[in-house]
Design brief:
Layout: H1 2-26, H2 33-40, H3 44-51, H4 54-71, H5 82-99, H6 101-108, H7 118-136, H8 144-163, H9 172-186, H10 199-208, H11 217-233
InterPro entries: Homeodomain-like_sf, HTH-type_TetR-like_transc_reg, HTH_TetR, Tet_transcr_reg_TetR-rel_C_sf
Protein name: TetR family transcriptional regulator
Pfam family, one: TetR_N
């Protein structure tokens, strides 16, 4: 049984590697079931057995590619300034898109309402971690959800815009300007609780709420609802 499981894992890795090579060389259209099975040295039914369908294979390729990208960026550690960390994360996203256009397009090029591909979910979680640290520092003046959506929308838009241009025409300062405009729209120069009004305090408290272990789950949920109402009203 163990040998069968190991063989299945080896087949899965071989198929993903073959599909990733085809994607890089010829784009999504090159990743046909026939081409992948030939490149991986497996029968086509094995692809369906392991991944369900072609979309399942493409999702696995994108997730694998993005995971490897993050592993190569282990030096991107949180610093003392979460806003600067977000700037670094933005640059990471743009570099990933330009270095891996086919993979980036696979992640974001064909939105599926109601279904988030694994790689896109991992990328959003990565972004959300940056936003959450800004909120914990009291420097976010919109909700974490609103901030993450805005950064994601403008960041992916900037990436696709640059990807569509010939390399010699790409102007990365446009991406930098978009980044700085978004950051200015969602953050404050000083911790939000220092400014008058309850919204900044509500955002910061909401970010720290998971650490309030003295409260029951029900009490945290109720307080979180109240804080969210304060943020939205602001």
């Amino acid at each position: 049984m163990e040998n069968d499981r190991s063989a299945g894992e080896r087949n899965r890795d071989r198929i993903i590697a073959a599909a990733a090579r085809l994607l890089q060389q010829g784009g999504r259209e090159a990743v046909s079931t026939r081409a992948v099975s030939a490149a991986a040295g497996v029968q086509a039914p094995a692809i369906y057995r392991i991944f369900g369908d072609k979309q399942g294979l493409l999702d696995a390729v994108a997730a694998h590619g993005f995971a490897r990208h993050l592993e190569s960026k282990e030096g991107l550690r949180p610093s003392g300034d979460p806003v600067e960390d977000l700037r670094a994360g933005w640059s990471l996203n743009i570099a990933f898109a330009l270095d891996n256009p086919a993979l980036y397009s696979l992640m974001y090029g064909e939105p599926r309402p109601g279904a988030t591909p694994p790689a896109a979910a991992a990328a959003l979680a990565f972004l959300t971690s940056f936003i959450h640290r800004i909120a914990e520092a009291g420097r976010l003046h919109v909700s974490e959800e609103h901030a993450a959506r805005l950064v994601h929308a403008v960041g992916t838009g900037a990436a696709f815009s640059l990807m569509s241009m010939p390399e010699h025409q790409r102007d990365l300062t446009v991406s930098d300007m978009a980044r700085d405009a978004v950051i200015a729209a969602i953050t404050t120069d000083a911790p939000a609780p220092a400014t008058p009004g309850p919204q900044g305090a509500a955002i910061a408290l909401s970010a720290a709420l998971p650490k309030a272990t003295v409260l029951t789950a029900g009490e945290r949920a109720l307080l979180d609802e109240w804080l969210d109402r304060i943020v939205r009203a602001g």
